[in-house]
Design a protein that fits this description.
By secondary structure, this protein is an alpha/beta fold. It is elongated.
C-alpha cells in the first residue's frame, strides 16, 4: 500500500488525515453492508467486509461565546511497517491518501505533544516510490507532492509499506500512550499551577517585606522628627 509521508505540514487541525486506498479498498469497509438476504454461514457469498472499530471525536464550535455546533471526526488505528509503528488517524472519506507525519517533519503541527511520526528507516519493509507507484532508484529523489485541505496543506513524499487496520495491539499501545500523555499533561498543569501559586506567594511576601521596611523607615523618620522638635523646643526654652 502506498503511504504519503508528510515532511512538512501547515494543517490547522490536530488530526492526521487518512482514507482507504489501493488493494485494501475492496475489503476494508467502515461499516457492515446491508444484505437483502443473510448469507449462509457455511457458504460465504462474495468478499467479506473487514470492520474497523472507530472512535467518535467531537470538538465544540463557539460563536459569540456559545456552543453553536460540533465538528465531528472518526478515528481508528493503523499499523504501518515492520516492525509495526502504530498511529491513530482520522478516516476521511474525502481523501484518497494515507497520510502520516514523517520523523523528519519539524513543523509545529508535527511537534504537537504526543504526535507520533513515521520512521521509514525503522521499517524493514518500507521503500520510497514515486507518485505513480514506481520504485525510486538509489541515484534519484522521489516525487514530492503538496496536498491542499480546507484547513491548510501538507508537503511530502510517497512510500510503499505494509499497512494493517484495526490491530488490537496497536489499539492497546495507543491507548496506553494516550493515558500516559494525559497523566503527563495533568502533572505538568499541576506543576505549573503550583509554580504560579508559589510565584504569587513570593510576590506577596516581597510586597509585605517592602511595606514593613517602609513602615519602619516612616517610624524612624517620625522619631527623628519628634527628637528634632524636642531639641528645638529645649533650645528655645533656654534662650528665654
Amino acid at each position: 500500500m502506498t503511504v504519503f509521508v508528510a515532511l512538512e505540514t501547515a494543517l490547522v487541525a490536530t488530526c492526521v488525515l487518512v482514507a482507504l486506498c489501493g488493494a485494501q479498498a475492496e475489503t476494508s469497509l467502515l461499516q457492515r453492508p446491508e444484505f437483502s438476504e443473510a448469507p449462509s454461514a457455511e457458504e460465504p457469498q462474495g468478499p467479506q467486509p473487514y470492520v474497523i472499530g472507530l472512535r467518535r471525536e467531537s470538538v465544540p464550535i463557539y460563536r459569540q461565546g456559545r456552543i453553536a455546533s460540533f465538528k465531528t471526526s472518526y478515528s481508528g488505528v493503523v499499523s504501518v511497517g515492520t516492525p509495526a509503528q502504530h498511529f491513530r488517524v482520522v478516516f476521511d472519506t474525502g481523501s484518497g491518501n494515507l497520510v502520516l507525519p514523517a520523523v523528519e517533519c519539524d513543523s509545529e503541527a508535527c511537534l504537537v505533544p504526543g504526535r507520533r511520526r513515521f520512521d521509514m528507516g525503522g521499517s524493514d519493509t518500507s521503500a520510497p516510490v514515486n507518485a505513480d507507484g514506481t520504485d525510486v532508484s538509489d541515484d534519484e529523489e522521489g516525487d514530492q507532492a503538496t496536498i491542499g485541505f480546507g484547513t491548510g496543506e501538507i508537503t511530502g513524499e510517497f512510500a510503499r509499506d505494509v499497512v494493517c487496520f484495526g490491530s488490537q495491539t496497536g489499539v492497546e499501545v495507543l491507548n496506553a500512550a494516550d493515558e500516559a500523555l494525559a497523566a503527563e499533561l495533568e502533572a505538568n498543569a499541576t506543576a505549573e499551577a503550583a509554580a504560579e501559586e508559589a510565584k504569587k506567594a513570593a510576590e506577596a511576601a516581597e510586597v509585605a517585606k517592602k511595606a514593613e521596611e517602609a513602615k519602619k523607615a516612616a517610624e524612624v523618620a517620625e522619631s527623628a522628627k519628634k527628637a528634632e522638635e524636642a531639641k528645638k523646643a529645649e533650645e528655645a526654652k533656654k534662650a528665654e
